[in-house]
Amino acid sequence: MKVLIPSALLSYTDRNPVEASGGTLGELLFDLDRRYPGIRFRMVDEQDRIRRHIRIFINADQVLDLGQPLQAGDDVVIVQALSGG
Amino acid sequence: MRRTLVLVATRKGAWLYHGDASRDSWRVDGPHFLGHVLNHVVLDPRDRRTLLAAAKTGHLGPTIFRSTDRGANWKEAARPPAFAKAGEGKSGRAVDHTFWLAPGPISEEDVWYAGTSPQGLFRSADGGATWEPFSCINEDAQYRTWMGTSQDGTPDGAKLHSIIVDPRDASHLYFAMSGGGVHESLDGGASFAPLIDGLEVVEGFDRSNVAFHDPHCVRLCPSNPDRLYQQNHCGIYRLDRPSKAWRRIGKTLPKDVGDIGFPMVVHPRNADVAWVLPMDGTTVWPRTSPEGKPAVYRTRNAGESWQRLDAGLPEKQAWWTVKRQAMSADAGDPPALYFGTTSGELWMGRDEGSRWTCIAQHLPEIYAVEAAELE
């Protein structure tokens, strides 16, 4: 499925959007990391929590749970949220 | 011919300053990682080519970048420092940023240590490419108590810092925590024990409680590894091993200056010589140059007396803060000192700090300054 990458992570992908797959959001992020090594840890910490200033939307709905199921054709948008000056 | 490289880590990126042979002119290389928060950039003294940079951004998690060609190219660590995953139903800690990088001894090629916020100790055995939690302290119940909570640390997070490896014995290690005291291992990190005798704590608190100790910066003297100096939240100290009792040596500084500050710098070849940069630790703790008149103080007799070194520095209205990693000495004869301010100025003090000149202005908030020798 199509994944929109924020500018802060384009150094990993070099293009936007990118393709990735997975039955859940967590699986999709692991697939992204397989394709673009290191990208997952910048978004998800070692306790599997989405980092404070990262937001992920699936079909325009914000998702906080990495177990959220995904369907083929879902649009995934990763956003860098406000983090100060 | 000896050349000095000054590595400047800031809240918005890193800059490398290459000095000419006489250190009269400087070629700037940067910014590297513009917009990234760089807490520390360190040159490996074992090969004088490898750089490690501790980075994060406002949005993204922490990582380590590595260069094997003095910053021409960088590669991210495959596995940056990260705490162990907590068990099911338990809440685990996450590294917010790597704060301190320390190369291992000459006898352990490719070994590096890292200290993080919140407090964690990590080790790499492959030159910084992959990192693992080191020793038991990250998950030890007693150490977790001493580390305290996020309310017990410095404003941007409690930190593990001042990781020191005894150059004579790679199994002899020190580290310090703000807050949480100074600690020593004699068995290669298998166990650590507090080393806080003689250190003071804030008035009214129990100095026997390790959690109340706030060492700001600890340095071991390369010319005498049995001697350590420390800038603490509560004064300046010296420790001569095998003694375990720190001795406060800052009381001889002028009373209107005090012995509060952040950096501690030692001489590369003379263990009686050290430098501090006092900050105002009165009332609400402004942590700025006392009375707006910045000065470095040097001792030549292991802290028995101090000399004020301010020639070339502003004489008034300079309300500087210099962080604990932001002052360093090169290996020249005599060495020059370097420090960076939170207002983005980089200064050099020739002849052990006797004559100061400004190398750079208008940088972002400076977090760390390391002077390294290239040849």
Structural notes for this entry:
The complex is a heterodimer of chains A (85) and B (375). Chain A has a single domain (2-80), classed as Roll (Ubiquitin-like (UB roll)), CATH 3.10.20. In chain A, 24% of the residues lie in helices and 22% in strands. Chain A has a five-stranded mixed beta sheet with strand order 2-1-5-3-4, with no helix packed on it. By secondary structure, chain A is of the alpha+beta class. The model of chain A has no long low-confidence stretch (mean pLDDT 95). The longest helix of chain A is centred in the middle third of the chain and has 11 residues, at 25-35. Chain A is globular and about 40 Å long. With 375 residues, chain B is mainly β. Chain B has two helices and 28 strands. Chain B has a four-stranded antiparallel beta sheet with strand order 3-2-1-28, with no helix packed on it. Chain B is globular, with a radius of gyration of 19 Å. The termini of chain B are close together. The mean pLDDT of chain B is 96. The interface between A and B is medium-sized, with 21 and 20 residues.
